[in-house]
Amino acid sequence: xxxxxxxxxxxxxxxxxxxxxxxxxxxxxxxxxxxxxxxxxxxxxxxxxxxxxxxxxxxxxxxxxxxxxxxxxxxxxxxxxxxxxxxxxxxxxxxxxxxxxxxxxxxxxxxxxxxxxxxxxxxxxxxxxxxxxxxxxxxxxxxxxxxxxxxxxxxxxxxxxxxxxxxxxxxxxxxxxxxxxxxxxxxxxxxxxxxxxxxxxxxxxxxxxxxxxxxxxxxxxxxxxxxxxxxxxxxxxxxxxxxxxxxxxxxxxxxxxxxxxxxxxxxxxxxxxxxxxxxxxxxxxxxxxxxxxxxxxxxxxxxxxxxxxxxxxxxxxxxxxxxxxxxxxxxxxxxxxxxxxxxxxxxxxxxx
Length: 352
Ligand code: PEP
Ligand code: MN
Hints:
With 352 residues, the chain is of the alpha/beta class. The protein folds into two domains: 3-254, Aldolase class I (TIM Barrel, Alpha-Beta Barrel); 257-351, Chorismate Mutase Domain, subunit A, CATH 1.20.59.10. It is built from 13 helices and eight strands. The chain has helices at residues 22-32, 61-71, 82-90, 100-103, 106-115, 133-146, 173-181, 191-195, 201-210, 237-246, 257-297, 304-320, 325-351, and strands spanning 11-15, 38-40, 75-78, 95-98, 122-126, 151-155, 187-189, 215-219. It has an eight-stranded parallel barrel with strand order 1-2-3-4-5-6-7-8, surrounded by five helices. Helix 1 packs parallel to helix 2 and helix 5 (106-115) runs parallel beside helix 6 (133-146). The protein is globular and about 70 Å long. Bound molecules: phosphoenolpyruvate and manganese (II) ion. The site of manganese (II) ion has 4 residues, from loops.
């Protein structure tokens, strides 16, 4: 990445999740020109299940080169193995990113780092799927050890299982931890893969800016409803510009150590509370499922033996975790009361 870009915030990287056709790539790039510093498009797509669209592959490379040469926007794509990395160099792409599923594997990262050895290409390293700061740092170091270009960090959130607000929990304390450990690394944020849905993009982008991140990577598709991957989270170029215009970029004068220390602790607390709310919501969904089961099978809502068992096991857990018994009892009683209310509602609805 050219250093001059880093002087204005945010550095914007935008483009479709996947390159689908030459026409789509070219017209999206035309629509974004002037508002973005980098054009992104995946041509090799890591998909969770086979038979999903896995990208157009190597045939998309000339389309990206066209964006670079004819439209004049630097481009980047994801590389997941040495072959991809060699092709990115061969076609003269400006930058590449390492995806979250690749960052988890030091072997994979090392083979990419070896393939890029000595080159001046810019590399953005996404955080690993799970919350492991050291693994993220290790991947950045592997790239720094072999390449001569800039290496940046790209925060895309962390995977978790079950009902949740975000596709990938932001856990802001982790990128903040990275910045503390590696102050020279520029941090970028990828709100698209954190949010998983359009409605959340504005606030997550704003948060990234408030934390002083250097730039944003946001997926943009001409017609998101037709996108072959990540349809729910992409913005039209028009909406992307609207989002950027709505950002409030505050000057960061956070040299006061007390302010930053306190801010970092509060971010940690916010992140935990957000998680608590998600967990409570998951718990109530289970209560609902239990209510439906009881209704179908003619069982009563309150089963005292179960409540006694709950109290016994939770008491032991709280002791292990160093929590006051009384404190936990109060919380559990509230949670239990709400579960009973949900289940009673289900049973009563049957009587109507
Ligand atoms: C992507 O950027 O399209 C992508 C697959 O990202 P991630 O590695 O964050 O899932
Ligand atoms: Mn995507």
